[in-house]
Specification:
elongated, mainly alpha, 7 helices
Protein backbone atom coordinates (compact mmCIF):
# COMPACT_ATOMS: atom_id res chain seq x y z
CA UNK A 1 0.00 0.00 0.00
CA UNK A 2 2.82 2.37 0.91
CA UNK A 3 4.50 1.59 -2.41
CA UNK A 4 1.36 2.61 -4.34
CA UNK A 5 1.16 5.86 -2.39
CA UNK A 6 4.83 6.67 -3.07
CA UNK A 7 4.38 5.81 -6.74
CA UNK A 8 1.31 8.08 -6.96
CA UNK A 9 3.17 10.97 -5.31
CA UNK A 10 6.16 10.55 -7.63
CA UNK A 11 3.87 10.49 -10.67
CA UNK A 12 2.01 13.60 -9.47
CA UNK A 13 5.25 15.49 -8.81
CA UNK A 14 6.73 14.56 -12.19
CA UNK A 15 3.58 15.71 -14.02
CA UNK A 16 3.50 18.93 -11.98
CA UNK A 17 7.13 19.67 -12.78
CA UNK A 18 6.53 19.07 -16.49
CA UNK A 19 3.49 21.39 -16.49
CA UNK A 20 5.49 24.05 -14.61
CA UNK A 21 8.37 23.75 -17.07
CA UNK A 22 5.95 24.13 -20.01
CA UNK A 23 4.32 27.16 -18.35
CA UNK A 24 7.69 28.84 -17.80
CA UNK A 25 8.39 28.64 -21.55
CA UNK A 26 5.71 31.30 -22.03
CA UNK A 27 7.79 33.75 -19.97
CA UNK A 28 10.62 35.13 -22.06
CA UNK A 29 13.27 36.63 -19.79
CA UNK A 30 14.53 38.70 -22.75
CA UNK A 31 11.41 40.84 -22.28
CA UNK A 32 12.18 41.57 -18.63
CA UNK A 33 13.31 45.08 -17.77
CA UNK A 34 16.22 44.53 -15.41
CA UNK A 35 16.48 48.30 -14.83
CA UNK A 36 13.10 48.25 -13.07
CA UNK A 37 12.66 46.62 -9.70
CA UNK A 38 9.98 43.94 -9.81
CA UNK A 39 8.84 45.06 -6.36
CA UNK A 40 8.29 48.64 -7.59
CA UNK A 41 6.57 48.06 -10.96
CA UNK A 42 6.04 44.41 -11.78
CA UNK A 43 4.08 45.14 -14.97
CA UNK A 44 6.93 47.26 -16.34
CA UNK A 45 9.49 44.70 -15.19
CA UNK A 46 7.81 41.80 -17.00
CA UNK A 47 6.40 43.57 -20.10
CA UNK A 48 8.75 46.40 -21.11
CA UNK A 49 10.66 44.32 -23.67
CA UNK A 50 7.44 43.10 -25.28
CA UNK A 51 6.02 46.62 -25.38
CA UNK A 52 9.24 48.02 -26.89
CA UNK A 53 9.37 45.28 -29.54
CA UNK A 54 5.63 45.42 -30.38
CA UNK A 55 4.49 49.06 -30.23
CA UNK A 56 0.76 49.65 -30.61
CA UNK A 57 -0.50 51.31 -33.74
CA UNK A 58 -3.17 53.99 -33.51
CA UNK A 59 -6.06 51.56 -34.14
CA UNK A 60 -4.93 48.97 -31.57
CA UNK A 61 -5.91 48.93 -27.92
CA UNK A 62 -3.69 45.95 -27.20
CA UNK A 63 -1.36 43.53 -28.94
CA UNK A 64 -0.48 40.11 -27.59
CA UNK A 65 0.61 36.64 -28.66
CA UNK A 66 -3.05 35.99 -29.51
CA UNK A 67 -3.01 38.87 -31.99
CA UNK A 68 0.13 37.45 -33.59
CA UNK A 69 -1.61 34.05 -33.91
CA UNK A 70 -4.73 35.71 -35.32
CA UNK A 71 -2.73 37.72 -37.87
CA UNK A 72 -0.80 34.61 -38.87
CA UNK A 73 -4.02 32.60 -39.29
CA UNK A 74 -5.66 35.36 -41.34
CA UNK A 75 -2.61 35.56 -43.62
CA UNK A 76 -2.66 31.77 -44.15
CA UNK A 77 -6.37 31.83 -44.96
CA UNK A 78 -5.83 34.71 -47.39
CA UNK A 79 -3.04 32.77 -49.15
CA UNK A 80 -5.27 29.69 -49.43
CA UNK A 81 -8.16 31.70 -50.87
CA UNK A 82 -6.04 33.68 -53.31
CA UNK A 83 -4.36 30.48 -54.51
CA UNK A 84 -7.80 28.89 -55.01
CA UNK A 85 -8.85 31.95 -57.00
CA UNK A 86 -5.86 31.67 -59.36
CA UNK A 87 -6.69 28.10 -60.44
CA UNK A 88 -9.91 27.21 -62.32
CA UNK A 89 -12.06 25.15 -59.94
CA UNK A 90 -14.66 22.52 -60.76
CA UNK A 91 -18.11 24.10 -60.59
CA UNK A 92 -20.13 23.16 -57.49
CA UNK A 93 -17.14 22.23 -55.30
CA UNK A 94 -16.37 24.02 -52.05
CA UNK A 95 -13.20 25.34 -53.67
CA UNK A 96 -15.24 26.85 -56.51
CA UNK A 97 -17.68 28.45 -54.06
CA UNK A 98 -14.88 29.97 -51.98
CA UNK A 99 -13.03 31.28 -55.05
CA UNK A 100 -16.26 32.70 -56.51
CA UNK A 101 -17.26 34.43 -53.29
CA UNK A 102 -13.79 35.94 -52.95
CA UNK A 103 -13.83 37.10 -56.56
CA UNK A 104 -17.22 38.77 -56.16
CA UNK A 105 -16.22 40.40 -52.85
CA UNK A 106 -13.00 41.80 -54.34
CA UNK A 107 -14.65 43.18 -57.49
CA UNK A 108 -14.84 46.79 -56.30
CA UNK A 109 -15.37 48.11 -59.84
CA UNK A 110 -18.59 46.13 -60.22
CA UNK A 111 -19.67 46.98 -56.66
CA UNK A 112 -19.14 50.69 -57.27
CA UNK A 113 -20.96 50.49 -60.62
CA UNK A 114 -23.98 48.75 -59.05
CA UNK A 115 -24.05 50.99 -55.99
CA UNK A 116 -27.11 50.37 -53.81
CA UNK A 117 -29.14 48.89 -56.67
CA UNK A 118 -28.92 45.23 -55.49
CA UNK A 119 -30.50 46.15 -52.14
CA UNK A 120 -32.92 48.80 -53.45
CA UNK A 121 -36.02 46.62 -52.88
CA UNK A 122 -35.01 45.87 -49.28
CA UNK A 123 -34.33 49.55 -48.62
CA UNK A 124 -37.78 50.43 -49.99
CA UNK A 125 -39.43 47.92 -47.65
CA UNK A 126 -37.55 49.39 -44.68
CA UNK A 127 -38.28 53.01 -45.64
CA UNK A 128 -41.97 52.34 -46.33
CA UNK A 129 -42.63 50.57 -43.03
CA UNK A 130 -44.83 52.53 -40.65
CA UNK A 131 -44.11 52.55 -36.91
CA UNK A 132 -47.16 50.30 -36.35
CA UNK A 133 -45.68 47.62 -38.62
CA UNK A 134 -42.19 47.51 -37.12
CA UNK A 135 -42.76 44.02 -35.71
CA UNK A 136 -43.52 42.73 -39.21
CA UNK A 137 -40.40 44.50 -40.52
CA UNK A 138 -38.21 42.90 -37.83
CA UNK A 139 -39.61 39.47 -38.66
CA UNK A 140 -39.01 40.07 -42.37
CA UNK A 141 -35.44 41.27 -41.72
CA UNK A 142 -34.76 38.26 -39.54
CA UNK A 143 -36.08 35.88 -42.20
CA UNK A 144 -34.53 37.53 -45.26
CA UNK A 145 -31.24 39.06 -44.26
CA UNK A 146 -30.18 39.47 -40.67
CA UNK A 147 -31.51 39.70 -37.17
CA UNK A 148 -32.00 43.29 -36.08
CA UNK A 149 -31.62 42.16 -32.44
CA UNK A 150 -28.87 39.56 -32.36
CA UNK A 151 -25.64 39.25 -34.29
CA UNK A 152 -23.50 36.15 -34.50
CA UNK A 153 -20.14 36.64 -36.12
CA UNK A 154 -16.56 35.43 -36.21
CA UNK A 155 -14.15 37.92 -34.73
Amino acid sequence: MKFKYVLFVLLFVSVSLKVSAEHLKSLDSKNFDTNTLATKDFYQYVNKGWMDNHPLSIEQGSYSQYDILNDSSNNRILRIITNLSKIPQQKGTNEYKIASLYSVAMDSVKRNRLGAHPIKDALSIIEDTSPENMTDLFLWLHKNSFSPFFVVSIM
